[in-house]
Amino acid sequence: MAGVLIGLALLAFWLFSLFDVVTTPEDEVRNVPKPLWILIVVLIPLLGGVVWMARGRPRAPRAAWPVPPGPGAPKGPDDDPDFLKDLDRRMRGDDVS
What we know:
Number of helices: 4
Order of helices and strands: HHHH
Radius of gyration: 29 Å
Largest sheet: none
Shape: rod-shaped
Helix content: 55-70%
Distance between the termini: 90 Å
């Protein structure tokens, strides 16, 4: 029974790998051309699928880590209380320059 489950798991992995290679756009495949990846996955079922997952699949785009503002630093001029006070003073005509 365990052998049947392992066999089904390997078959599922092989089919997933093959489907993934076939549906991946040609320009996103890494390292070798897409037809060669198909041959590798078909002819070497387990190892070919593992190598495809590690070396052939397109990499997911990585987003840059957001850099939070420093502690107590305003995010923009409209968040800076000193700037807003100065702006209010200038709009009222209390500018002493």
